[in-house]
Protein: DNA invertase Pin-like site-specific DNA recombinase
Organism: Nonomuraea dietziae
Amino acid sequence: MALIGLVRVSTDKQNTQRQHDALDPICLKVIEEKASGKLATSDRPDLLTALSYIREGDLLTVQEVDRLGRNLLEGLIVLNDLFQQGIGVKVLEGIGAGEHTERSFILDLALALAEDRRRDIVRKTKNGLETARKQGKVGGRRPVVDDDKRAAILDRRRRGESIRTIAAGVKVSVGVVHKTLAAAAEGNLTDQPPTP
């Protein structure tokens, strides 16, 4: 019986070291995956690579059960696929810790909690962004057009210059000139061009 490890993070900015520290010493091979756990198994090439190494009787090993999937349905589908192939799952930590060769209530519960945790993160992120907007804080890229550039764009247009000439002269894109002129025509002269 061999242990094949799966390390999963959702983004490149997340650190995998803690998972590697747990899996590297005990696994024959460890596959690292940078993909959302809510994707279907078929859309997770690194998970498929890990599964290709596993033979009957082997165990796919994860640090916590939510590494299989953050979505209850997707996690259960992954587990069912594994169990039908005779592949067990070893969970090292958290709810569901242990070796599993068939579905169990504890695994179902652990996956449900993982999905709930993901929903909670999404909700808190949306609430935080909404609160920031109410306080006048705007995320995203800084405006390309400051007051000086806006004045130059409007002045050059009044003098009859073409949009391309204005863009080249003020060193902004043609799109920025269009948005600035449209905002001025609508009476919206904020730093941020209107969104479509």
